[in-house]
Task: inverse folding
């Protein structure tokens, strides 16, 4: 039996399973790519011969993360990121499933491209890759895509990536049609006209920097509209990246009306704010923009309460060509696959979000929304598992990042907690040396 | 002839990127030094040698007549070798990035780089990549520090002080680097600053920069010692920010009727270039209360002071 197909026993660990709200000391046995069992006292005696026993004393064993929003350059921008490099970054960050976005070149709006992504991922990636397909052809916001065929080919949800569908009629029809196929529509809620030439959060800091601001209303108005359309159509809807306090009010009202609405927040918006931009640091230019610290705190609270379902990395590799420019001219985006968990643990360490909640939002909930098999430690689930050293202090060295681009806002940041092992389908895909 | 200035003021920093961060003493130090250059510039013999051997490059990514010529003259009068880079027609048009241009110029060992760029923060970005001193000659809607200094010098010479004066800055505050630098400087020196503009031309959060806000000229100019007008760009007048030139001039253009709302001895300023009949009427621009031409004169002196004070802090000075 080859070494990487041996059963693995993760022994003496703190087992954290957000899918069942479990947090207990115990062992977890993996064999043939699936979880056999997770319980107290399996011990080295109770496992098949040849099992690799890994001592996880003092460490957490949890489901592998499912990153619901990552922009990968393949196909079309392989100089920025390929499925292979993204998957290595993901493994190092504890992400066992990347949900990639359709704004590639060509756009993922044809089932042949879904098929291409899945084959490339199978051949080159070391973690699972699940593509979202475009909601409208070419991401132009005018005509819906072949939702049925794309779903059949393996698209896990539908989105226009970082673009909003501004035409309400197109959005209504697409939502209506999508409902028949029971697919999740994921929408970036920012009114492009209200964004205008804006490049950062509107307010005092933008005024001081002489940069044009983007008001919270750009987000709130679009989400308000969508809530009315969801009420009209009854489709499953997911807000791709909420960033501000007012948006949370809209979301809360929709929940109170029992609309089938869920939401993500990016790790950037949960842990950083507009002041981090400082002297025009373009690595902090993201879309939607980083907001005020009040907004950030409100997001963390909403994550703790469950109003925000999912935390995603919003991984978006940009190179020197697109980032070493004056702020207004630089591209938006930050990489995040490798730092999402460590940054998220800041919220656990400062007491604003319980560990189970954070891991639920990074694994169980995305699995539920996208009907993926992971996100749990139940027996029989795929062995996509991470081992976390929750208290390990470290400083992020951008040169050590596996991503092709180094545009991380956590450059030189002090972080506490890291992934020490990532297991995908029963094989170790990453081990911290 | 090379007589040392009486002021031995040194700006203890490598770059002048903005007014933000300058202390009261640094600002008054620069203004005092400027006074000596005002005197010098009125003599026949205007030449000094304090920058002899130094190379100054003027790198203007946005066209400018008065600022660029003012910096050129200032450098030459202090004895520096001054080169003007007309960027609009050079490498940047061929796709070279700002950083590449900076690296290329840096390899020529300039001591001082004077830069203007249409993007806020571009000058700061350049300053991180070069070895010499960088002077911000205007970056986007962010800062234009030498303009604020020359405005302060003009005010101080005419009013004898800045502290306690009421200064009304009127017009397109949102897109104005002149307004931002002036707001910071005048606050540091203890003036009371008011901004007067239609709300579409006021950035959100401006009230937190230490200014009072007025939306009409009567209220805004009441009790003002200084009325500072800003240029309104043509592309903002077509309905995007204000409905038309006519309407803008009717409500915000400075004519003698509106100037009468200010103190009788109020003085009028404009950073230029003026749009006569848009933000200012000719009778006011050329009238007895106007300091607009004097501002240009002060510009050269202030830029000499900045060059001198920064160069005293350069290696081997």
Result:
């Amino acid at each position: 039996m080859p070494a990487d197909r041996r059963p693995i026993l993760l022994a003496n660990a703190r087992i954290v399973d957000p899918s069942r709200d479990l947090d207990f000391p115990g062992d977890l046995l993996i064999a043939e790519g699936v979880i056999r069992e997770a319980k107290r006292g399996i011990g080295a005696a109770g496992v098949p011969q040849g099992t690799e026993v890994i001592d996880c004393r003092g460490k957490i064993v949890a489901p592998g993360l499912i990153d619901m929003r990552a922009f990968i350059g393949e196909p079309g921008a392989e100089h920025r990121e390929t499925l292979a490099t993204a998957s290595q970054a993901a493994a190092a960050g504890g992400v066992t499933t990347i949900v990639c976005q359709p704004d590639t070149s060509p756009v993922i709006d044809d089932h042949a491209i879904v098929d291409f992504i899945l084959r490339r991922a199978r051949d080159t990636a070391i973690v699972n890759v699940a593509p979202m397909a475009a909601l409208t052809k070419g991401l132009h916001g005018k005509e819906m895509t072949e939702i049925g065929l794309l779903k059949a080919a393996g698209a896990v949800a539908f989105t226009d990536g970082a673009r909003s569908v501004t035409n309400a009629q197109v959005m209504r029809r697409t939502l209506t049609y999508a409902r028949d196929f029971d697919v999740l529509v994921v929408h970036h809620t920012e009114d492009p006209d209200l964004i205008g030439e804006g490049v950062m959060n509107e307010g005092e800091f933008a005024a001081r920097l002489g940069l044009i601001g983007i008001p919270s209303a750009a987000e709130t108005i679009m989400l308000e509209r969508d809530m009315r359309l969801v009420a009209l159509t009854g489709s499953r809807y997911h807000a791709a990246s909420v960033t501000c306090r007012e948006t949370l009010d809209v979301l809360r009202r929709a929940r109170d009306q029992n609309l089938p609405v869920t939401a993500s927040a990016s790790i950037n918006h949960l842990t950083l704010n507009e002041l981090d931009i400082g002297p025009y640091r373009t690595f902090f230019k993201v879309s939607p923009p980083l907001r005020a610290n009040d907004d950030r705190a409100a997001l963390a609270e909403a994550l703790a309460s469950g109003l925000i379902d999912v935390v995603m990395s919003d991984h978006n590799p940009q190179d020197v060509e697109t980032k070493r420019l004056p702020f207004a001219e630089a591209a938006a985006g930050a990489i995040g696959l490798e730092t999402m968990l460590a940054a998220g643990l800041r919220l656990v360490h400062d007491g604003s979000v319980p560990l189970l909640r954070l891991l639920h939002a990074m694994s169980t909930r995305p699995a539920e929304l996208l009907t993926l098999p992971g996100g749990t430690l139940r027996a029989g689930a795929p062995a996509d598992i991470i081992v976390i050293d929750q208290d390990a202090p470290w400083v992020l060295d951008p040169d050590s990042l596996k991503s092709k681009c180094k545009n991380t806002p956590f450059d030189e940041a002090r972080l506490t907690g890291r992934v020490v092992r990532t297991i995908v389908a029963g094989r170790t895909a990453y081990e911290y040396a | 002839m090379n007589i040392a200035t009486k002021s031995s003021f040194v700006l203890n920093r490598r770059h002048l990127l903005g007014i933000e961060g300058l202390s009261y003493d640094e600002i008054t130090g620069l203004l005092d030094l400027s006074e000596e250059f005002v005197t010098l510039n009125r003599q026949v013999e205007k030449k000094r040698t304090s920058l002899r051997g130094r190379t100054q490059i003027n790198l203007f990514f946005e066209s400018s007549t008065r600022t660029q010529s003012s910096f050129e003259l200032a450098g030459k009068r202090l004895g520096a070798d001054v080169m003007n880079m007309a960027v609009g027609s050079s490498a940047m048009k061929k796709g070279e990035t700002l950083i590449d241009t900076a690296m290329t110029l840096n390899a020529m060992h300039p001591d001082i780089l004077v830069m203007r760029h249409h993007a806020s923060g571009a000058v700061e970005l350049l300053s991180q990549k070069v070895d010499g001193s960088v002077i911000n000659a205007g970056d986007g809607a962010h800062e234009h520090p030498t303009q604020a200094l020359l405005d302060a010098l003009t005010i101080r010479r005419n009013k004898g002080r800045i502290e306690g004066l009421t200064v009304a800055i009127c017009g397109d505050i949102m897109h104005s680097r002149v307004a931002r630098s002036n707001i910071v400087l005048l606050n540091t020196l203890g003036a009371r600053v008011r901004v007067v503009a239609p709300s579409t031309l006021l950035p959100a959060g401006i009230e937190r920069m230490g200014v009072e806000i007025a939306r009409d000229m009567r209220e805004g100019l009441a009790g003002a010692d200084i009325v500072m007008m800003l240029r309104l760009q043509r592309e903002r007048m077509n309905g995007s920010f204000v409905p038309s030139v006519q309407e803008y001039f009717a409500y915000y253009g400075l004519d003698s009727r509106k100037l009468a709302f200010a103190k009788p001895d109020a003085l009028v300023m404009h950073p230029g270039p003026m749009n006569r009949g848009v933000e200012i009427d000719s009778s006011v621009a050329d009238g007895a209360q106007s300091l607009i031409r004097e501002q240009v004169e002060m510009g050269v002196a202030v830029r000499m002071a900045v060059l001198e004070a920064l160069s005293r802090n350069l290696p081997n000075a």
